[in-house]
Structures are given as C-alpha cells and as structure tokens.
Amino acid sequence: MAMIEIQELTKRFGTKTAVDGFSLTVEPGEVFGLLGPNGAGKSTLIKMLTTLLPASSGRATIAGCEVGRQSAGVQRRIGYVPQALSVDGTLTGYENLLILAKLYGVPRRQRLDRIHAALNYVGLDTVANRLVNTYSGGMIRRLEMAQATLHRPPVLFLDEPTVGLDPVARKTMWDLILQLRRDYQTTVFLTTHFMEEADVLCDRIAMLYNGQQVAMGTPAALKATVPHPEATMDDVFIHYTRNLLTTDNEGSYRDTSTTRRTAQRLG
Amino acid sequence: MTRQLHDAPLNDWANRGRVTAPVEDFIAKALVAAELEVRKLRHDPVQLFTRAVQPVLWLTIFGQVFTQVRGIPTGNLSYIDFMTPGILAQSVLFMSIFTGLLVIWEKDLGILHKLMVSPAPKPALVLGKAIGAGVRCLSQLLIIYIVAALMGVAINWSPLAMLGVALVVMLGAALFSTFSLIVACWAQTHERVMGVGQLMMMPLFFASNAIYPISIMPAWLQVVSQLNPLTYMVDALRNLMLVEPAGSYSLGLSVSILVSVAAVLIAFCGRLYPRLVR
C-alpha cells in the first residue's frame, strides 16, 4: 500500500490556481522532497495533505485514509512540523510533549515512558525541564521532531525543516530524519530550499512551479535532464524555474516574512 | 544522541478506533487544551497582578466618589455594593475581549498549526481556550474580593456563594473570550482584533447594568442593555456576591442565558477556527 497517494489535487483561491492537478505516489519508507520557488504552491499542497486546507478538487489518501473524508484518521497517522515554530516557548520541553501526548490520546500508562523515550531519541533528555525559550534553534527543531513523532505516525510532513539552522544543527536534523526512516520506516514528505539537503536526503524529488509539477524523479535522474555535464541540484532548480523573475508570485510577501521570522527565532 | 527503540509497535493506538465515547473524548480534549493555557500561566503569573490594577482603581476612585455623590438610584443598596459586581464583570470583559490577540500570536508562531492537525475536535480546542481565559480571570476575583472587603462592601462569604461567583466569572470569561476568538478568525491580524476589541469593550460595558441600573437609561439603550450578555453576568453576580441578593432577574434565567450564548459561540467558533491556519 502506498503511504501517500495524490490524484489531480487542485486548490484554487478565487481566480488563482495555487496547486494545479498535482498527482503523486509515495511508497512506505520513502523520503520525498518537494522543491520550488516561494509562492509555487508547496505550502498550499502540504496544508491540503495535513488536513488544514480543503482541496478544490482531486483526492489524496494518506496511509489508507482519505483526506477530507476521514480527517481524524489522517490526523492520527501523520506528524507535521510546520515551517513556523510549533513548540511553546513558555513551557518546558517535557510539558510541550505532555500536552501533545494527551491530545493524541496516548494511553496514560505509556505516556511518561514515551515522552522520555522521545526526548532521549532526539538527545534532549537532559534539558527536558528547561523552558523552551532557552533552547537553541537546533534543539527547538529536534523537540519539534520529537513532538511530531510522539504518536508514532507512519507519515511525517516537514515544511522547510532546516530553515535558519547552522550547518551543524542542519546535519543533525538530516541524521535524525534518516534515523527515523531506518528505525521506524517512517515515510517523510518534506519541502526545502536547500538543494544540497534535497540531494542528500530525498529518494525522489518533485519540482513545483506556479502550482504545476514541472519535474519529478530521483536526484540523479533530475540532474541528468540538465544539459550540463556536472550539474548540481542548484542547476536543476535554476533549469526548471528560470523565468521566475518575470512572473509575479502572490503570497510571496507572506511566505518571505514567515521564513525570516522563523529563521530569526531559531538563529 | 542515544538511540532507544520504543517498545510499542508503530502507531498502535491509531487503529483502535473510538475507545472513548465522543462526549467524553470532547471534554477530555477540552481539558487538555485548558491545561495548556494554565501551564503557560503558571510559568508567567506576573501578568495576573498587573491586570488587577484597573479594577482596583475603578473601585477605589470611581466607586468612592460616586458613593459620596449618591447621584445614581440603587435602592437600599449603597452604590459601592451596587458597583462591585459590575466592576468584577468589567474586569472579566476587559481581560477576555483580547483573547483573540493571543490566538493570532499563536497562529503567527505556528503553535496553532500543531493543535489543528491533531485529532482533537476543534470546538474542544475553543472550549479549552475559553476555560483557560476563565482561570486567568479567577485571579481578578481574588483581588476584587480583598479590595471590596476593605471598602466595606457587604459580601456574602458563604463558600457556596463564592463558588457560584467563580463559576459565573468563568462563564462570562468563556463567553467574551470566545467572542474575541470569533473576531480573530475573521480579522486574522493583531491590528484588527485589537481594533474590534477596543470598539466593542466600551459599548458592552456602558450599555449594561454594570455601574448604573437599566431603569435610568433611555428606552433604546434599555433594549440594547437587555440584549447585552454582560447585563446577565452582572445580574447573576449581584445575586451571588452580596449579602442581600440584588439582581433584577432570577439567577436561573441569567445563568441559562450565559450558558446558551457561550455554547452557541463556542460551537460557531469551532467551525470558524480552522480558518486561522489556512
């Protein structure tokens, strides 16, 4: 059974089509990357898949549950780390996880063990009782990973997981993502602006441009489509989004300000 | 980073379906959402005391002056006794009407997104916020009781009456904070929520029985006041808080009106709530 199955998913805002007939199948244990310039529709797509935004047409199934019809089922089966910060700075790391465990209905007897195991897994067990607003950017992201995987979802959505992190923290996040896949066969669907990240982490990549899928394949296959002998993922990105500067992207201001704010908070 | 495998199988409870009844689940989730608010408050309790300055000023300055003036007909009741429940209701109103600001802040941060993708019913999240706002307002209750006692207000100290006052305070806070959340769902930005809050708080306060009886108002304002939920909150408090119950309506009527309005607002807000993260 495919973990994520998307058929002709479309989202229209008034006359603007933010995501236009997107289709995709992601297998269990796959790390899938979604690339594209700001305003290309990445966030809209992820919001539809995580049940935050209803689709205009098309359908999507996650771990066997149909988005829109079986929202509660989808919600139990996914973890989501939004681009903006999703942990509360005025609570301790432990408290953040405790609230989430209760909201997801983790059985009372397992709650403590699970929280401590999750904190241990991301290397935050020693700072569990510190307020999150004293954490570094990398620690916050790792706590968010612990939070999003506490109910052990088979599918994990990460919206720009390493934005604003220093190279060491970024590398730690990459290791954590791969470790989750190795230990739990977690399927990961992520968006990123770091081409190196996409290259290192992702089994397959889709490029989104003006709401449409313009390319899809393994990093190696995508690089091979670029007429340039030693092409990097950067070249691939530029190749497929070359005329970006001539188009206007609605929503870019909001995206940019969210990204900058997030980067500022984590940095 | 140490690795420790969790002992439980992958997402084992995801397939158990409904183990609890929907109503039970709803209440449980609302209490978790409320626990979140209370825990946040516990780490930063200073705000509770700064918020208490305003009602204390109303009681000590406005209250004392108007008690001397005797310009407002309050029957056998001294004016300070009359206005104390009104000022308590006012402080609850003023604190709750800006709850929408907090939720916009949480939306901008991203905290709201993680709550929205959880399987908790959205109206339960709203109810949790409303209960949280109620707990916040209980601190006002404590301070107003102390100040009122010092000023010689004839307070009913029976524990049952005080419990009743606390429940009415929480009910009022739930009602006005949910109203503010609804505004936030529409307005989406700090500035607009702030603007609507400012716009609403003075008319809600003055077009009510908080600091003068409805009977002295012009006819049109009497109609507005009778449609204003704050009137029923104040009236319920007048029945519960004072030695001589001084409400114009029965306690049952006032509480029923508050409960119904709050329930409708929470259900409505639960439907709008997902808009905040779209």
General description of the model:
The complex is a heterodimer of chains A (267) and B (278). In chain A, strand 7 (155-159), helix 6 and strand 8 (187-191) form a beta-alpha-beta unit. Helix content of chain A is 40%, strand content 22%. Chain A has ten helices and ten strands. The relative contact order of chain A is 0.18. Chain A is α/β, with parallel strands linked by helices and 267 residues long. With 278 residues, chain B is mainly α. The longest helix of chain B has 29 residues, at 122-150. Chains A and B meet through helix 2, helix 3, helix 4 and helix 6 of A and helix 1 and helix 6 of B.
What topology emerges from the helices and strands here?
The complex is a heterodimer of chains A (267) and B (278).
Chain A: E1 4-13, E2 16-26, E3 31-35, H1 42-49, E4 57-62, E5 65-66, H2 71-77, E6 78-81, H3 93-103, H4 108-121, H5 137-149, E7 155-159, H6 167-184, E8 187-191, H7 195-201, E9 204-209, E10 212-217, H8 219-224, H9 233-240, H10 252-266
Parallel strand pairs in A: 3-8, 3-9, 6-7, 7-8
Antiparallel strand pairs in A: 1-2, 1-4, 4-5, 9-10
Helix pairs in contact in A: 3-4, 4-5, 5-6
Chain B: H1 22-43, H2 46-50, H3 53-69, H4 79-96, H5 99-109, H6 111-116, H7 122-150, H8 159-187, H9 190-206, H10 219-227, H11 229-241, H12 251-272
Helix pairs in contact in B: 1-7, 3-4, 3-7, 4-7, 4-8, 4-11, 5-8, 7-8, 7-12, 8-9, 8-11, 8-12, 11-12
